[in-house]
Amino acid sequence: MEIAALRHKKQGIYLVLLAICFSACAPNQIIANKVKKEFKNSPIIKQYQVGFALYDMDKKEMIFQKDADKYYTPASNTKLYTFYAGLKMMPDSIPSLRYIENADSVVFWGTGDPSFLHTTLKGTKAFDFLKSTPKKLFFAPGRYTGNFYGNGWQWDDYNDYYQVEINEMPLMDNVVLVSSSIAGSMNILPQSFATCFVKDSLNTKPFKVVRDFTTNKFTYPKSIIPAKYEQQIPYKVSALTTVNLLSDTLHKYIEITDMKMPTSAKTIYNVKSDSVFKQMLLPSDNFIAEQLLLVYANKLGVELSTSKVIDYVNKTYLSSLPDPPRWVDGSGLSRGNLFTPRDMIKLLELIYGEVKDQKKLFNMLPAGGKTGTLRNAYPKTDTPFVFGKTGTLSNNHNQSGYVVTKKGRVLVFSFMNNNFVLPTADVRKEMVRVMTFIHENF
Asked: Is residue 290, in this structure, part of any structural domain at all?
């Protein structure tokens, strides 16, 4: 009896030790140990603030974290928040115009729709409606009362294509496109801005158009415009500019009225939401991101308010995030945005569950070595293994998304790099090295 009991006891100890060994060698623990070593041995990562998280969606398990509970400036990773809000609030189509129709007139209000006469999205349904009606047209501004820039934007970027002004009825991307013709002359679109261009005969610097900060006066040097030149300059938005541009395009006279929009106003939808989300995510379009928040606000009521819709989304859809996000704009241009890597992980898990179609989701996101802002970050390939969103401001560069391993596992990651003084290219290479290591070894 004693011998049998002793043998039974030894078997029990053996099984316990075996279980401990098996646990220690669990696949996710192996990944964690190896990734931890990569971070520890990196001479690059030691030079700045890095937050990282790697998550297993199937097992609902965080594999590895490095300062993932600390806040970082997300830059354009913010667009993932705007994307998720759209999946919840605008799952089908984008509302483009609100209107009421009287016996002899049509009064219309903007919704913030970025697709209205957009050069790529080409939203024309609302335009066609205004074009086809024989009635008098009245534009009623005033739904958007916010600033033409988002919270915390840099004022001295006003002349750059990526910092377009916000308004309730954007037209033609809210930019003026300057390009060179075959004959070497300057093309201006929309053409109605041509009279606003002035040559500076004393300026002999390389060709560049600069808009006056407060007005739509565009100055260019006397130097010859280079071949294949293209420049997008944000124009100064106003109700009068909107009416003039729209009248010029419709070839119809439009008056301005101060009529408040009734809740009974009808809606015209322009384009499918997925196409707008994809156009925001692939090239990281700040203009679309900011305008989408106004589109979401349109669903909530009369006022188009960025802060109110963000507050609504936080309370209604993002209560499960582990850390309260500081979210202030749609695009990530503001350094006022602060998110943790583990917040990004949870958000990406929510996005994955909302889309419910991996192929569709990955097609909407930049793909490493193939599409969007990740096209040149990773080696060119027909079968990318990273799908996600980049985010770049001076001294900050991030990637958050999904990595597919060689064994076919889909893991969620957030890699946030802040406050570095190295060239961004060096930081990007180190991120790519680590993500490639994860792909190839697991």
From this structure: no
